[in-house]
Amino acid sequence: MEQSAEKNSPAPTAQPSARPAADPTAHPAARPTARPSAKAAAGFAALAAIGPATWGTTYVTTTELLPPDRPLLAAALRALPAGLILLALTRRLPSGDWWWKAAVLGILNFGAFFPLLFFGAYHLPGGVASTISAVMPLLVAGFGIGVLKVRPTRRTLLAGLVGVAGVALLVLRGSATVNLAGIVAMLTATTLMALAVVLSKRWGRPEGTSLLALTGWQLTAGGLVLAPIALTAEGLPGHFTGANIAGYTYLGIIGTALAYALWFRGIERLPASSVSFLGLANPVVATLAGLVILGQTLTVWQVAGLVLVLGSVALGQSRSKAPRARA
């Protein structure tokens, strides 16, 4: 949610020395903080953008390194191993209402999002899939009105439309085929992720819990949903090649555990609408990966699209009107 100014509170009755030190990882909703300075916000945005930039390599990794026609298996092996590793490293489990909150976020971010994403990647050209996912800032703005009580500015809405147009110019091809099931899958996946961004902003994280632990909870919850479905519907391939193992390892550790931890930190530190625009780094990196790895070339229209996308990201970092305080 948008960070609002702290309310005046009565003077504490306890001596300052008796009060425990403030926990820097405290739940943002329980400990309101001032908006970050422009310099700090730029730093948070740069780190958070690493997540979507890494996700931009998912398409080429899927098509070049992973076994064909196994989107559910790819989703499960991307989520569950990474989640279990983070749980082992952090040695912290949810408590109280965070059991169900972690489950909800895990399903939205991974358990439902990943298979829909991979299904779309297998059934749509990368350009069509990326263009659909570019509507996420507009969806976050819509969800934010009801959940966060944040009204998007006209500038934010304009930036969202510019972003969609830019991505379309960047990645769409005249020969692109349209698969209705793939379109529905990508639109649903994008909607779920937008809702996850807004809920993550509203709920924050529990006191004393690191971002790696929170990421591990969600990955494990999503992976536990995915694993039995993947094994039942697709099963394992006859064997895994070295390329398959490298692809799964990269997606799990770099493209998921690290990328999502940085993404969640951005959600915590920045307005939800600002973070959502950073997701447009995904198609930019996907296009650049195609240039470097697949030997593709850029047209004049793609260069124009790239400029529009970057302009949209910059425009989207404007501040929305502060939300009304909740009782």
From TrEMBL:
Membrane topology label: Multi-pass membrane protein
Region (Disordered): 1-34
Domain EamA: 47-171, 181-315
Sequence ranges of Polar residues compositional bias: 1-16
InterPro entries, per database record: AA-Vitamin_Transporters, EamA_dom, EmrE-like
Family: Belongs to the EamA transporter family.
Location in the cell: Membrane
Pfam families (alphabetical): EamA
GO annotations of cellular component type: membrane
UniProt keyword annotation of Zinc present: no
TM region positions: 40-60, 72-90, 102-122, 128-148, 155-172, 178-199, 211-233, 245-263, 275-294, 300-316
Name of protein: EamA family transporter
Organism: Streptomyces venezuelae
SUPFAM superfamilies, per the entry: Multidrug resistance efflux transporter EmrE
First and last residue of the signal peptide: none
Keyword terms: Membrane, Transmembrane, Transmembrane helix
Keyword Transmembrane helix: yes
Compositionally biased spans, kind Low complexity: 18-34
